[in-house]
Amino acid sequence: MSNCIIAQSGGPSSVINATVAGIVKANQLNPLYEHVYGGLNGIEGILQERFVDLTNMSDLENRLLQQTPSCALGSCRYKLKRDNEADFQKIISIMDHYQIETMFYIGGNDSMDTVAALSEYTASHQIANHRFVGCPKTVDNDLVETDHCPGFGSAAKFIAATALQCWYDINAYPSSRTEVFILETMGRDAGWLAASACLSNKVDILIVPEEPFNKEHFLNRVKDVIALRSKCFVAVSEGARYIDGTYLSCGEARSELFGHTVLGGAGRALEQMILDAGIASRCKVQDLSIAQRCHATEQSLTDVTESFQLGMSAHMRTADPSFTGRMVGLKRLPTEQYVVSCFDVDAEKVANFVKNFPSQWLLPDYGGISEEARQYMLPLIKGTPEIIYDETGLPAYIKPYYLVR
């Protein structure tokens, strides 16, 4: 019997480990592989042969893994380049050495590109018995083909709840004190996370990358809201940009290893505009930063359940020896009640594409989101799993596997 390996890549989420737990549990129930290895720090760790054996994970460890935030196996930003054949040869050699037939790679569109590239390499070199399967993960919800991405629902729930709580805070003061509150979310190319703040029903102005930013129009909208009720709540995506593509962010943009722009500061840029215009006496900015993707005590039950089931489905599909180069995604069924099923698609159809927030779901004048958008997002934030706490009263998490060695 051959072995398999699971690895994680890209930005973490609060439910990415549930997919790992699902793959492990599926193999315990239906052993397709003798050993289920975890590759530490993604493809980078696999190239360094840094593995951990997950095969005999206990039920308690599996349960705690599902509620543990971030990447328990560690992540990476390593770009597998098609013209670097040495990396491909080394990966195949390592898989042969450990008798690994299948690699499950959990991540975003760059990770799906890794799955596609490895599958293409083995096919073009007629290398048999080496398979590569993608499992989607991204809080940005910007992967094409799949209805939504594991990780988004929990991040959206955290953002919407935070927006609601902050609204109560800023409105505790009398109307004589004018104030603008700005909530900045992640979202380099797509506005899904910023839009989720509107589920609180408290956002007055929404700024996302899909709608070019107009400074004068924005300031006029802030003035109108302030005149109406003295307080104004703004949600903005870090990737908000002008019509020429220039980022609104006041911070100097830089690039990470995948070549993507690292952003931050859109909220501060809006704050400076508002203060310079003298529109309000006070302006506060809350940048949710990494909190929106690692806050796990309020996971969406829908999200963590689907992430686990997706891992089980990915494992099950590899019973077919021809199953490779595919991503397992989520399909929403046309039923009255919210129901999803798992399906699979060529990873190359997902790799390096971006699913934007639909423009038809944006209300005019930065006015928020449509009812259709709300009905799409609301089922994804439903429910909260029962969290196991330790003796100190803090959530119980497994120790990250990259720290155990």
TrEMBL record:
Is Iron-sulfur one of the keywords UniProt gives this record? no
Pfam families, alphabetized: PFK
Where, subcellularly, is it found?
Answer: Cytoplasm
* Keyword Ribonucleoprotein tagged: no
- Residues holding diphosphate: G11
* Enzymatic reactions: beta-D-fructose 6-phosphate + diphosphate = beta-D-fructose 1,6-bisphosphate + phosphate + H(+)
Q: Which UniProt keywords apply?
A: Cytoplasm, Glycolysis, Kinase, Magnesium, Metal-binding, Transferase
Binding-site residues, substrate: T138, V139, D140, M186, G187, R188, E238
Task: List the InterPro entries hit by this protein, alphabetically.
Answer: ATP_PFK, PFKA, Phosphofructokinase_dom, PKF_sf, PPi-PFK
- Summarize the subunit comment: Homodimer.
What this protein is reported to do is described as: Catalyzes the phosphorylation of D-fructose 6-phosphate, the first committing step of glycolysis. Uses inorganic phosphate (PPi) as phosphoryl donor instead of ATP like common ATP-dependent phosphofructokinases (ATP-PFKs), which renders the reaction reversible, and can thus function both in glycolysis and gluconeogenesis. Consistently, PPi-PFK can replace the enzymes of both the forward (ATP-PFK) and reverse (fructose-bisphosphatase (FBPase)) reactions.
What is this protein called in UniProt?
Pyrophosphate--fructose 6-phosphate 1-phosphotransferase
Species of origin: Grylomicrobium aquisgranensis
